[in-house]
Amino acid sequence: MKSQKYQHPTSLYKDQESQKNKHRIDLLFIAGAALFFMIWAWQWNRFDLGLDGPDEWMRFDIIRYLTEHWDLPRGDNPAIINPIWGFSYAFHPYIPHIISALFIRAARFFTDDIHILVFTARLASVMFGTGTVWMSIKIARKILKDRADQWIFLFFITFLPQMVYLNAYVNCESMAIFSTAVMIYAWLLGMESRWDPKSCIILGTGLALCALSYVTAYGFLVCSFLFFCLSILLCQDKKWEFKTLFQKGGIVLLVFVLLAGWWFIRNAVLYQGDFLGIRSRDLCGEIHAQDLYKPSLHPTYEKDGLSFLQGVRAMCSGLGWHRDTFKSFVGAFYDTSVRLPQLIYNLYKILFAAGILGCLLSFRKLFSVRKDGGWREEGIFHWMLVLAVIIPNFLNLYASYAVDYQPQGRYSMPMLLPFMYFITFGITQIMDRLVKCQKARAIIKGALCFGLFSIAVYALRYYSLWIQAQ
């Protein structure tokens, strides 16, 4: 029997106290992030400007209906159909709006002030944003060894101005981002535990949350399926164990069906088999929309006869799709017309470029999938993160080409966690190469975190001043 290394009781006590202090700091950071999101949600609560977030009026129609009738509306319910677009968002999952309606019904026991009720509805997004911060902490502790690097990752995610904004108005993107964090955490647990029941249950939960959130995050469903299969078939003690794959996959599928299956069954029953609701939404829009916005008449590059590549060239070279999308990924408010000073976008360009460069310099370390004649699970994990960055951007680009030209960074936001992981990894790799003094590196990393937080505070002040000027 192998003897255990003796640890002095005083040393053990200090380790326990250190862990408790780290846990307290994590909790304070989560609470601080939640408070910051709430300040944003309350700051522009002015009805003379209308509801501020993109499409927030259409989403409030669903919340209003839920609050008044306490019944799940069909997508083609006349009470919630938008008079311009001719459809409603009720064809797609609206779990955050159900939560918002619950919050409003609770708030109405105390007040009927419309400003407070709107703020209360936005707390659903605050809740999911806070959940993302919580899950990001758990992810950071597993994939980044240095604690300073972990904090850079957390500040990149938590205080990206657009991320804060999404967590401060009524939408489904905040839930979508939270679901991606749950899935990434499940991947990490699966790698550690060789996919024990806990990791399978968490993965099934993340998949369900993703399916019930927003279609732009659906790429993570593909990535999770691929990683789960490759991890079990290639990276376990026994290769190509399809029996194990089906057994553990059965747990994931069961959890997914129990949590998310009801919605898609409901859609299939309501809309003659259209379980996603997309075909029925377009049909509704064709009947009720104003002429310019009917799906068959709404102009797109695809209808103009351009191939996808031709459309991409036209959107990027002629209209600056990539520039507008980048800016609204970093931060663009109201109807995306309120943008930050160019200096902030340039700073993020520099940080992102440095992060990408650092990843390229460490390419083999990150993406090698073979080692000592076997498969390297960590390399597969990183390739799935790359795919999770690519898919939402492709869907965003394709939607502007074939459906409706909208260069909006929020449609690319499901890539937030994997993208910021790579940026953090790359930046810290460059720092570690260029700055040899450990204390100097710690100071620089702390300054970077402070700078990211300062940008978010400035963005809040900048938008507040814009609102006051209206």
Automatic annotation (TrEMBL):
What highest taxon heads this organism's lineage? Bacteria
Q: Which Pfam families match?
A: DUF2142 (PF09913)
Which compartments is it annotated to reside in? Cell membrane
Q: What is the recorded membrane topology of this protein?
A: Multi-pass membrane protein
What keywords sit in the KW lines? Cell membrane, Glycosyltransferase, Membrane, Transferase, Transmembrane, Transmembrane helix
Segments passing through the bilayer: 25-44, 84-104, 116-139, 151-168, 175-191, 211-233, 245-265, 347-367, 379-399, 411-430, 442-463
Protein name per Swiss-Prot or TrEMBL = DUF2142 domain-containing protein
